[in-house]
Batch of 2 targets.
Target 1
Amino acid sequence: MCNLDRNLIFSNFQKCVTWRDKYFYIVDLGSLLILPINMYRKENIITGCQSKVWIVISYDINKKFFFYGYSDSYVIKGLIFIIFIFYKNLSKDKILNEDIYKYLNSLSIASYLTSSRSRGIESIIKAIYDKINFI
Amino acid sequence: MELNIFMNYLIKKIRSNFPILSTIINFYPLVYLDSAATSQKPNEVIYSQSNYYLFKNAPIHRGVYTLSNEVTNSVESVRLYISKFINAKFVSEIIFVHGSTHGINLVSNSWGRYFLKFFDNIVLTEMEHHSNIIPWQILAKEKKIFIHYIPLLNKGFLNISKLHFLVNKYTKIVSLTHLSNVLGILNPLLVLVSIIRILSNSVIFIDGAQGIAHCFLDVQILDIDFYVFSSHKIYGPLGIGVLYVKKSILNIMPPFEGGGGMVSDLNLTNGLVSFNYLPFRFEAGSLNTVSIIGLGHALKYILNLGLVNIYIYEYELMRYTLIYLNNVFGFILYGLYDRLGVISFNINKYHSYDISCVLDQFGISIRTGHHCAIPLMLFFCVFSMCRISLALYTNINDVNFLINILYKLSIFIK
C-alpha cells in the first residue's frame, strides 16, 4: 500500500478491460481507506455528497499531510482513496494548484460519476482544498 | 411460478406502444424501473404533442375563430373526462395546475392563508413527500401555528390510534398521501376520513401523485375536499397536474395567482375586480393546452386497456417480484408486503448508490436516495434506499433480469 502512487493507479486502470474490472478495483482501493475510530465526528462530515463522507487531514512538523477518510458507499470510498493517493506527499502549494480533475478523467471512470455523484466528488475535493488552505 | 394473468395481459402489444422501451443502454435493453418518478408515454400521447403544434395550436378561451374554438373544446372536454375519471360531481371542480407540488402550494396559499388563524393546527403524517410538508411548514411559520404529524407503526403503516390525540376542534386541515411513494402503502382513506370528520371540522387534502396510477378513485365516495395528481406519473405529458376541489370549498377560496384569464372585470380607479367563473379564476395565464390534451389521451389509453386489467396485472407482478426479491441474500424490505407500485429496499451493507451504479451498467434504471421523504428515512434509520416501481408496461423479464443481477451482487458482500 505504501508504494501505491498516482502513476501506478493510472497504469492499473489501463489494465482494466471491462467496467466490472474497474468497479471492483475501485471497491478494492476503497477498502484501504482508514479512519481512526475517534474521528467519526460531526465536524469531519463533508456535506454535498449524498452518501455520508468523513475526511480528516492531519500534518506533522514538516507540513507533510496525512489523509484519513470513510464513506458508507464502496464506490465513494474508492474514489476518496484515489484522491488521497493523488495528493500523497505533495506540499500545500502543490495540492492547491494541481488539477486533480484532469487526473480523474484520465482514469476513464466517467461512467461511475453520474451528475449527482460528480457533485459529491466536487464537494469532497473542495472540502479537502478548504482544509489544506486553512492549515 | 405460473401466473395466469400474464397470459391474458397483452404485455408485448402494450410495450410496443411505448417506443422508449426499445432503447439500448450500455449495450443492454433498457429496463426502466423508475415509473414512480416519471412514467413513460404511449405513442398516442407522444403523437398528440406534435399533432397539436402541427395542426391545432391556438389560444384557448380568448379567440372566436375556429382554431381557438376547437382547442378550447378539446381542453374543456379533457376537463370533463377527468371529472368523470375521478367521479367529481361538477366539472368546475377540476382545476389545471402545473403539477402536484403546484396544486399543494395553491391550496396552502389560497385556502390556507385565508382560513387558518393563530391557535389552529394542521395535521400531516411522517410518511409524506416533502411537497406535502414544506408548503404547510411555510404557512405554519407565517401564521404561527402548529403542525402535528401522525406517527407510523413499525412497518411504516399509519398509527391510526393516535388520531384522536392529534386531530381536534382546532384542526383546520389534514393532508395525507393516498399511496406512499416510498413504502407503497395505500392509506385507508375511507376509514381515515370518517374518523377525521367525527373528530373535527377540518378539510381533508389528499396527495394523489402516486395513488392516481395504481388505484380506483371516487372523490364523492371518499368525501374528500382536495385531491391533487400529476399528469406525468399517469403516462401523460410533463408540465400539467390536476387539483380537485369540492364545490363548497371552491366557492369560498380566494384566488392564488393573478393574471390573464381569471378576471371578468377590472377597474383601476376604484380597484374593484370581479373574478371569473370557477374554475378559471384559479387558472391565471396561458394554460399548458398541449399537455392537457396529452393527458386526455393518456387517460383514454389506460381506460381502453381497462383499469381492472392493469391493476390485477400490477398486483400479480408485485407478488412475483417480492417473492423472488426476498431470496436475494441480505435483502431488506421497507414497508409491508401488501403494497402497490413501489418496492423500496437495501441490500445488506451496500449503499444504495453502489447498487444503482452496478445496475445502470446493465441498463437497469432504479431510483436511489431519500426520495424526498427524509422523515421516513429517519424513521427507518437509513439515509437512502433503492426503489423500483412497477407500471403497466413492466415486463416479467425486467423483473427477472433485475433479480438476477441483484442476486449476483449480493454474493459479493464485503
Target 2
Amino acid sequence: MLDRIKEVMAGAFQIAPEQIPDDADTDNLEAWDSLGHMQLMLALEAEFGVSIPTETMLELLSLQEIESYLKRSATADVL
Amino acid sequence: MRGPISAREAVQRRNVGLAALKERNVARLPRADCFVLSTFNVDLFPPLLSYSLREYGFYGEVEVGMFGQIAQQAMNPASALYAAQPANVVLITAVEDLLAPLFDRPSRFSAEAAADLIGEQLEQLERSIRTILERLPDATCYVVAIGSDRVPSGHVLDPTADARGQRAVERLLHEIRSVGSLSARVVAVDWETHVRSAGTAPYRDPRLWYLGRMRLNPAGLAALGDLVARHVGGFRGAPGKVIALDLDNTLWGGVVGEAGLSGLQLGDDGIGGAFRDFQRELLKLHDAGVLLVAVSKNNADDALEVFDRHSGMILQREHLAGYRINWTDKATNLRELAAELNLGIESFVFLDDNPVEREWIRQGAPEVRVPELPTDPAERPDFLRGLPWFDRIRVTDADVSRAASYMAQRHRKELASAAASFDDFLTSLEQELVIEPVHEGSVGRAAQMAQRTNQFNLTTRRYTAADIERMMHDDAYELYTAAVRDRFGDSGITGMTILRKSDSAAAVEIDTFLLSCRVLGRKVEDAFLSVAAKRAREMGAKHLVGRYAQTAKNAQVASFYVDRGFEMVGEGEFVKDLAGADLDPPPFIDIKVATYA
C-alpha cells in the first residue's frame, strides 16, 4: 500500500518514488507544495476510487496519514 | 458525440503532456507557445494544454500568470506577460468572476447598476486586449468566454426578471464572445457550446474552488485544452482543403452498378437518411470553401447518373471540383486530382467505407489523411462534424468563391503512379480465394450473381436457379463459385464461372465468368481464370475458349481475354492454347480449390 501511494505521489510531484521517504510530509518534502498537494489529492481519488472531503484534504499532510486514511476508507480500492 | 473527459484520462494527459515537454520538440513540430491569464486559478492547465496542442500538431510551452490580474498584467509594461514575449496569449474569463459583486449581493443591483458593471468590465477587457495587441504585435490573443452554471438569484425563476440577474450574465457572455471583431489577431473561444454535450458538472469541483479558487477540475482543464488547441489549429490554417469521396456505400447506400438507381438507399427515411445527412454536412463544408472530389471504382456513366437523376442526392455535379471515376487505383487518382487542382496531396482527406481502399491510400499516398469512417452509416454525420481538419475561424468571400473557380479550371495531366509497389500492397492484403463446385447450398447465390452482376460479366447470361440446377446435373458443365477472404474480412461468394465441354472434348468453353465489383482491382480475376484454365487442362482439353458479349455496362472487360494471352478468332470469341504458356496465378493469393471428382 505504501509503495502504491508513493507511486501516485511520484506522478503528482514529478519526482522519483525513491526520493519519497516513509515519513514524507509537507514540511520535509520540497516538491509537496500547495499545488502538488492538490494534484496528489485528485490523483489519490482517481487511483483508489475514494472521494476525499474538503476538510480531509487539508488534514492529509503526510504519507502516514494518507495511508491510515485509505485503510479506514470503506470504499477504497485498497486490495 | 463523446462523453466528458474522465479524471483518470486527465491524469494520463498530464503525464503525456509533461513527457512531451521534457523531449523539447524532438519532432520539430511548429511552435505554439502560450501565456495564460485567467480570472480564476488555472495552475494545473499547462501540461494539459501542451497535450492538446500536440494532438493538433503543435509543440507549445505554456506559462501561467498570476490569476485575477488580467488588466494588471496587460497594462503593466514590465509584467511577466511581456517578459515572456509569447506568440499566443490565452485570456480565460469567467463571467462569475467579472460579475462577482452581482453574484455576491444581487439585490444591491438594479438593472442600470448591473448594466454599468457589465460596461465597466467589458471596457476594461477590451482595453487590456488592445494593449496586448499593441505591445505584442506578432501575437494572437485567444479569449475564452466561460459562462456560469448558476445565476445570481436562482430563486427568482423568470429568466428575464432583473432580480434574477440572468440577463446580465448572458449579456456579458455574449459581449465577450464578440471580441473577435476587435482584430484579426483576436480569436473568441466559446466554452459553453463546446461543453454542452458533456455537461459542465463533470468539470466542476467545489472543493477545488474553496481550496484554490479553481473553477475547473483537471478534466475540465483537459477539455479546455482541446478547445483552445482546436482554435489555434483553426487560426493557423485548416490542413484539410479537399475531401476525396468514394461513392458506393459512402455517399449512398448500395452499389449503383449492381442495384441500379432505384436500388440505392438515399432518402429521408431509414438508413438512406444517414447518407443524406452525410451529404448535407459535406455540402456545408463545400459552402465554407472546402473542395469536394469524387474517387470511385465504377462506370463513370452509372455513377454520374446518380448525381444527375437520383432525387435523393443533396450533392450535385456542380459541387465537385473534380472526379476520377474509373478502374485505376485510387492513390494514382488522388495524385492526378492534386495536380489538377494545384494543391498539395497532404491537404486531401479521403473518405471511403472500404477498409481495403483506406489501407491502400495509407500505404500508397501516406500524406493523405484517412480517417476511420464508422462502419455504421448512422454514426457518420456526427463523425464528419467532429473532424478537426476543416476548422477555420471565419469564412471569407475568398473561401466561398474558391470552389467555383476550381470548377472552371478542370484539366487533365499525366502523372507517375503511386509510390508504393502495387504488388507489395496486394501481398499485404493476405487474400485467400476459395473455389468450389456449385452445390445445393450455393445455387441461390450463383443465380443471384448471374442475375445481378453487370460490370465484370463476360457473357451476361441471366441464368435462373432452375437453369443452374439443370447444368449441375449435366455432365457437359462444371460450375464453380469463388469466395474471397482477406485481412479485413470475408467477402463471401463473389464470383462464378461455368465451364462447358465442347462436343469434340478438345476445347472447354467459358460459358460464364463473373465477379462482384467489390473484389476487382486485386488480381482475383487472374487467380480465378488460372484455376479455370487448370481445370480445363485436367478435363483433357487442348484449348480454352472465352467469349465476350458486349452490353451497356461491361465495356471494362472487352479486352479481358486478349490481355491475358488469348487470341481473338472471331467477334467476341477468344482462344487460348492450353499446351502453351500457363496462365500463372498471382503469387500473393492463396488459392484453395475443390473440384468435381
